[in-house]
Amino acid sequence: MLQMYPKPRKKSVMPTDYKNKILSSAQKIFAQKGYVKCTMSDVAIHAKVGIGTLYNYFKNKDEMLQLCIQKMIEDEIHTIEKESDKLADPLEKIKFFFDEHYELLKSKPQIARLLLIELRQSEGFYKRNPTYNPMKYYLDYYTKVFQEAIKKNMIRKVDAKTLAYIVVGAQETIFLQWLIHGKDLKIDPLLKNMADILQLGLTKRK
Global pTM? Predict the structure, then answer.
């Protein structure tokens, strides 16, 4: 007599796995096709899920973009920040953060394109979501580190938030130019000169 065994159950996919799978696909397809031209159907096809599944997790494309960037910051940038926190010198923290961020963008250029190009081109997105500001993370990080440098008397007393705006602006410009011109732009000398200016300022040396 044949012994009957119960059929093995199909492994169920956890909702968070589906959500992360869709976000990973959205990040790639937004960068490849462009956020404005990309549709929810494009994301569904790339993620190999039904369009209805997308709407189970995201109410619209805007929300998907916001969560894409939030996931990228949580998965990638927070890791760099935690590593930088191990350094005692605040200015070394900034250099480390900048260097590692550059390495991340080199290894995952879709992140650079999403942050530096797609968001800039999506004027309608910001009109619909006026309070959304992915750069706030960077501004908060640099402000915190500059406040630490001031407290340790490593730099003179300045408004840390204003300095953070200057550095974030420089960071965006450098990475955007690198994205446009690729290997023609040598980033290492720019980083060195930027660190020099941060440490010594613009006052003419005697």
Answer: 0.77
